[in-house]
Amino acid sequence: MFWPVGAAPHGTYTFWVTRWSSCSSYGGTNTPSFTLQVFEGNNVVRTINGVMPDGGTTQNYTHTY
């Protein structure tokens, strides 16, 4: 999700990663890794690295801006 610099509404955002199909269908692994980055302006203020759980959806993460 993106807004022009300085135009994002202030508040608490909730986000997560969902795997929509099996990566093994495309030659990958069933436990792929992911990286989420939260930007404020041009600065990365948070980085989340993880591995997809068996259920295909990560926990919820929040960020308050």
- Low-confidence spans: none
Strand percentage: 35-45%
How much helicity do the residues have?
A: under 10%
**Major sheet strand order:** 1-4
In N-to-C order, the SSE pattern is EEEE
| Beta strands, count | 4
Structural class label:
mainly beta
Distance between the termini: 14 Å
Radius of gyration computed on alpha carbons:
14 Å
Sheet bearing the most strands, described?
2 strands, antiparallel
Shape: elongated
Count of DSSP H/I helices: 0
Average pLDDT taken over every residue: 85
Overview of this protein structure:
This protein has 65 residues and is mostly beta strands. It has strands spanning 12-15, 33-40, 43-51, 61-64. The chain has a two-stranded antiparallel sheet. The chain is elongated. 0% of the residues are buried. The mean pLDDT is 85.
Sequence-ordered SSE layout with sheet pairings:
Layout: E1 12-15, E2 33-40, E3 43-51, E4 61-64
Antiparallel strand pairs: 1-4, 2-3
Which tags fit this structure?
65 residues, single chain, two-stranded antiparallel sheet, mainly beta, two-stranded antiparallel ribbon, elongated
Q: What is the gist of this entry?
A:
The chain has 65 residues and is mainly beta. Helix content is 0%, strand content 38%.
